[in-house]
Every structure is written in structure tokens, then in C-alpha cells.
UniProtKB/TrEMBL annotation:
Keywords: Hydrolase, Nucleus. GO terms for molecular function: hydrolase activity; RNA endonuclease activity. It is found in: Nucleus. Gene3D superfamilies: 3.40.50.10890, Ribonuclease Z/Hydroxyacylglutathione hydrolase-like. Signal peptide: none annotated. PANTHER family: CLEAVAGE AND POLYADENYLATION SPECIFICITY FACTOR FAMILY MEMBER (PTHR11203), INTEGRATOR COMPLEX SUBUNIT 11 (PTHR11203:SF37). CDD domains: INTS11-like_MBL-fold. Coiled coil: none annotated. Belongs to the metallo-beta-lactamase superfamily. RNA-metabolizing metallo-beta-lactamase-like family. INTS11 subfamily. It comes from the Eukaryota. Residues 243-361 form the Beta-Casp domain. This is Cleavage and polyadenylation specificity factor subunit 3-II.
């Protein structure tokens, strides 16, 4: 069995996340997003690669949506109501509640720009009726073989990583996540799982963020300086997520500094979104939940709804305008009015995809921005870029991959050069195979398949034999309290015709196949310099007699291997099955060739023999003997 991963979106780019995974006969679509930087056919994933005939109901087992951002859910109404998918769809309760707000807001932006309407208001309602909401860590049985489970991802309200299991094969798709908590959301949390595959976002594949408090101070300083000089501050952001994070920050700062400059939301959408945040308080950070009894963090004292008549009104203000990235809508309208003034400030608090005005502003300090072939905007205002992104950074990605330790990792939702660097780190530092496929590419690798097996009584008894080790304290030379069990159970897997698979002890194999027991003995014969042997012990007189040579050897080896119980037997030294004796057979089959220098020296040859069980002891002793010649 194999796992096939078809990337339809977010392959070596940020936008229109959509990955179709085939795992042990089941086919799951993770996310169904749109690209904010396109207005043509590139806006949506190429759904024809799922089914040429358009029979998506039989082609997919289910759809899983990780969160409500448009680059993860923006194409869902189109796929269900226009393309005709009617199968199971899963998302968390907050995502199901907030997704219609985002989709309807985007639909209005499309209409306002004069674009062809991809789906209607009724399509959004009908689409959400097909959704099954799930709770965190709830085991959901999609069918008899496929089970899914959601884990807290931080990022935005309701965002979840999803675990999917089919038989013995398992995987996790992270969606977008944040490994550090912020003011209104907690950090991502997931169990330690045995995984064949981890598909993770890599938006900030090479970025290590500085202190959150330093970023907050820098942001507040820039905003305060602008309004103190009579300027206006535009903060283009999506209605859900960063808007609430920054409102909590600004509202608290305004209270502490006793500022009277108005802070505005651009539309009723964010006001409505704040109501959901109040209702879904259990999905927020621990700090917000702890203070909820005395004060709701989303009751902003200094934030008001914006009236369009104030757009060109004199005086300073701070305005949160949707959508983020200045990709259209009211934030673009405000940008046109405020960008030509040097006293104004535009602060970009998160990632901006290529093709948007926000991305153009972040790519340098442009003096003009072309919105289309007929519209050019003079940009004289201040541009302030600051990472309040809810995405995890490179350290967070590496921490998650190391924690889960999957067999394979696929990177999506990132930029190609940075993904390549992260891929190399995962391979070199963690030893895990990693891939970063482009859109429309498929990655395949084998899946896990466990089989049930019986075990013989002899094998079970051998597995129970203790083999404890008590490490000694290097200072006191006494055993420490730490006990290490290094047992390894070794057996032979057998399968007879018409019989169950069974693990047996190696001694049972001889009886089973009706043969005799054969022991393999290893041998090694090598020479040592006779002159140097004389320097080992001053008390023993060295002659050409075998017993005297073994006595010298015993003196040295006893110092090194006294704990092994080295025995001086007649004509040889022995420990377990290992034995060493003086060899006078010039045709010894175990003798190794001597070099030209050794041929000119007077040498004594020692022949060693041992069984496979004492392989490590044998080579330890031989190594010490050879060092006597150095």
C-alpha cells in the first residue's frame, strides 16, 4: 500500500491551499482555498486533476477544512455548489460559524470590483449546510476505515491540525499554526503520534522571530508617533484574527497612555466577528479565559465603527480596514486616499502574497503603485512592516517535526527558496525524508501495514530474561539509582501454508525444519612484536615458551578486562566462548598478511576463536592486543 499526495494549491507558494491525499484506498482533500493574488482561472485549484469526469463524490472520501481564512476555504462554495461535490465536509465549530462571514465579505468585494461572481449568497448558505462540525480531540469515524481527529493549532479562532488514520497508516495535516501563544490565542497542541506523513506549512521557513514584546513596542511606537503628529494610520487586516490581537494591544495602550485619538473598525463585519469571539471564549488563550469573569478582553473601550464620511476628515485616527494585504475592498479605497500624504502611516502586520498591493509595498519603498493600467497612486506615506503574523517561525516548524518524528515530511504554503533551506535542515538535522512539491505534482511513498502474529512460549520466555545495567557514578564509582534496560527481543518470523504468522525462538527453528544445530566459529590470527612484549611486565621473564608469552598477555588483559572474568586455561586465555593461544602453524587459515616492516621483526602469532555471541568481546580484546604493538 502507498500514500499519494497530490498538491493542488500552496505548492511552493502561499495561497489556495488544497492537498489531496490518497491513503490506503481513501482520498481526503485538505483545505479548499483560493489565491488572493489572482482574478483569473489561477484563483482556484485545478479540480479536474481529482476526477476527469467531474464525479467528485466518488473520487473523494471527505473534505477537511483547517480554518476560515480564504486561502484555505475560499473555493469551497464553488467546489460544492458549482462543481457539484456533495460528500462529507469537516471543520471545527468556530470555523463553521465564522467561515460564512469571510466568504460573504469576499463575495461582496468581488461584486464591488465588477468581477464575475463565482458563487452567490445562497451558494454559501447551501455549502455550509453540508458541513459537519467537530470538537477538539473528538474521534470522528468518517467510514468503517477512515478516522479523523482535530487538534488545537492557535493561528486564528477555531484553527485545527487534523490527524487522519486508515488502518495502520496515519498522517497529520497542520494547516496554518502557531507554536507560541499571543494575546488572544494559545499555542498549538498535539499528541505524540506515530505518523507515516506530516504535511506542514512553511510560510516562515527561514525566519526566527525576535521577542514578541519588542515587536509590540515597535508597533505602538510607530502608531503613537504618527497620530501625535496629526497623521492617520491605516492597518489593513482581515476581520478575524490579527484585528482582535492588535485591538487588544492598542486598546490597552490607549488606556495606559490616556490617548483620545479615535480607533475605528472599517465595517460591521469585525463588530460581528467580535461577538463570536465573546461566545467562543473557550477557544482563546488561557489569559483571556482567566480574566473573562471580570472583563471580556473583546469589549474594546476605545474602538468604534467607522463612517465613510470620516474618510477625508481632518485630524488623526487609527483605522482597521478589510481585507488584509490591500487586495481590494475598503482597505484599497482608504489606501488611495491616504497614501499621497507624508504624515500618514500604513502598517502591514502580516504576510502579503505576491500580486497584492501590500506585497508591492513590502518589496521596497515604491513612490508609485499601479493598481491597473489606468490607475496609478502616489505613495508618499510612511510604510511600516512588522510581523504580527499568526504563523509559526522556522524554530516552531522544526520543533513540531522533531516532536512528531514522522517517516516523511511534505512542506507546503511557502516560498520555494526558503522551503529548500528548511527541507535541507529537516533532512540533515532530523534525518527525516522531506519534500516540497510544486502545484499539480504528486509525491508517493509506502504506507505502514502491521500484521498480527502469534508468539511461541520459548520466544516469550527469552524476551522476559532481564538484562539490566546499573551505570556507575564516575566520581564515587558506585552504582547510581538510574536503571537502564537494553533488552532486544530477537526471534524468527515464520509462516506455514494455511497457518498463522508466528514468531519463534531461534533454537526452535532447528526442530521445525528437521535439521541439526550448527555453530559457526570465527577465527583471527595475527602477530605481535616479541621485543615489545618484554616491556609489558618487568616481573615475568619472557622466553620463547608459550606459557610465558600467555602470562605476559594475561597481565595486560587482566588490567583491561578483569570484569569479564578472563580465565588462564591450559595453553590459552578464555572469556566466554572467546579464547586466544600462541599459534605456531605457519599455514594457519586465520592468519592475516603481515606488512614488509613486520616481516623483518621477530614476531609471535596469536590465534583467536569465538562464536557470534561474543563478537563484541573478541574485537575489544584483539584491539587491546594490537595496541600493545604501537
Amino acid at each position: 500500500m502507498a500514500i499519494d499526495c497530490l498538491v493542488l494549491g500552496a505548492g511552493q507558494e502561499v495561497g489556495k491551499s488544497c492537498v489531496v491525499v490518497s491513503i490506503n484506498g481513501k482520498r481526503i482533500m485538505f483545505d479548499c482555498g483560493m489565491h488572493m493574488g489572482y482574478t483569473d482561472h489561477n484563483r482556484y485549484p485545478d479540480f479536474s486533476l481529482i476526477s476527469k469526469s467531474g464525479d467528485f463524490n466518488n473520487a473523494l472520501s471527505c473534505i477537511i477544512i483547517t480554518h476560515f481564512h480564504l486561502d484555505h476555504i475560499g473555493a469551497l462554495p464553488y467546489f460544492t455548489e458549482v462543481c457539484g461535490y456533495n460528500g462529507p465536509i469537516y471543520m471545527t465549530y468556530p470555523t463553521k460559524a465564522l467561515a460564512p462571514l469571510m466568504l460573504e465579505d469576499y463575495r461582496k468585494v468581488m461584486v464591488g470590483r465588477g468581477e464575475e461572481q463565482q458563487f452567490t449568497h445562497e451558494n454559501i448558505i447551501d455549502c455550509m449546510k453540508k458541513v459537519t462540525a467537530v470538537d477538539l480531540k473528538q474521534n470522528v469515524q468518517v467510514d468503517t476505515d477512515l478516522q479523523i481527529r482535530a487538534y488545537y493549532a492557535g493561528h486564528v479562532l477555531g484553527a485545527a491540525m487534523f490527524y487522519a488514520c486508515v488502518g495502520d497508516s496515519a498522517m497529520v495535516y497542520t494547516g496554518d499554526y502557531n507554536m507560541t501563544p499571543d494575546r488572544h490565542l494559545g499555542a498549538a497542541q498535539i499528541d505524540r503520534l506515530q505518523l507515516d506523513l506530516l504535511i506542514t506549512e512553511s510560510t516562515y521557513a527561514t525566519t526566527i522571530r525576535d521577542s514578541k514584546y519588542a515587536r509590540e513596542r515597535e508597533f505602538l511606537k510607530a502608531v503613537h508617533k504618527c497620530v501625535a503628529n496629526g497623521g492617520k494610520v491605516l492597518i489593513p487586516t482581515f476581520a478575524l484574527g490579527r484585528a482582535q490581537e492588535l485591538c487588544i494591544l492598542l486598546d490597552d495602550y490607549w488606556e495606559r497612555m490616556n490617548l483620545k485619538v479615535p480607533i475605528y473598525f472599517s465595517a460591521g463585519l469585525t463588530i460581528q466577528a467580535n461577538l463570536y469571539y465573546k461566545v467562543l471564549i473557550n477557544w482563546t488563550s488561557q489569559k483571556v479565559k482567566d480574566t473573562y469573569a471580570t472583563r471580556n478582553a473583546f469589549d474594546f473601550k476605545n474602538v468604534h465603527q467607522f463612517d465613510r464620511t470620516l474618510l477625508d476628515a481632518p485630524g488623526p485616527c487609527v483605522l482597521f480596514a478589510t481585507p488584509g494585504m490591500i487586495s481590494g475592498g475598503f482597505s484599497l479605497e482608504v489606501f488611495k486616499h491616504w497614501a499621497p500624504s507624508e504624515s500618514n502611516l500604513i502598517t502591514l502586520p502580516g504576510y502579503c502574497v505576491a500580486g497584492t498591493v501590500g506585497h508591492k509595498l513590502m518589496s521596497g519603498k515604491p513612490t508609485t503603485v499601479d493598481l491597473d493600467k489606468d490607475t496609478r497612486i502616489d505613495v508618499r506615506c510612511q510604510i511600516h512592516q512588522l510581523s504580527f503574523s499568526p504563523h509559526t517561525d522556522a524554530k516552531g516548524i522544526m520543533d513540531l517535526v522533531k516532536f512528531l518524528s514522522p517517516k516523511h515530511v511534505i512542506l507546503v504554503h511557502g516560498e520555494k527558496p526558503k522551503m529548500d533551506l528548511l527541507k535541507s535542515r529537516i533532512k540533515s538535522e532530523l534525518g527525516i525524508e522531506c519534500y516540497d512539491p510544486a502545484n499539480t505534482e504528486t509525491v508517493s511513498f509506502p504506507s505502514t501495514h502491521f500484521i498480527k502474529s502469534d508468539a511461541s512460549n520459548a520466544f516469550i520466555r527469552s524476551s522476559l530474561t532481564p538484562n539490566f545495567k546499573f551505570p556507575k557514578d564516575e566520581i564515587t564509582d558506585t552504582p547510581s539509582l538510574h536503571v537502564r534496560d537494553e533488552r532486544v527481543s530477537e526471534g524468527i518470523l515464520t509462516m506455514g501454508k494455511g497457518q498463522k504468522v508466528k514468531v519463534i525462538h531461534q533454537d526452535e527453528l532447528v526442530t521445525m525444519v528437521g535439521g541439526g544445530k550448527t555453530e559457526v566459529e570465527f577465527g583471527y590470527c595475527f602477530g605481535l612484536n616479541l621485543c615489545r612484549l618484554k616491556n609489558i611486565s618487568k616481573e615475568v621473564r619472557v622466553s620463547n615458551g608459550d606459557d610465558s608469552l600467555l602470562c605476559v598477555l594475561n597481565t595486560k588483559l587482566s588490567d583491561e578486562f578483569g570484569e569479564l572474568g578472563l580465565r588462564d586455561c591450559e595453553g590459552s586465555l578464555e572469556v566466554n566462548s572467546f579464547r586466544v593461544r600462541v599459534c605456531k602453524n605457519d599455514d594457519c587459515p586465520h592468519r592475516v598478511d603481515s606488512d614488509e616492516l613486520s616481516e623483518r621483526l621477530e614476531r609471535v602469532f596469536f590465534c583467536c576463536n569465538w562464536s557470534i555471541l561474543d563478537k563484541s568481546i573478541a574485537w575489544r580484546v584483539i584491539s587491546v592486543m594490537k595496541n600493545m604493538d604501537l
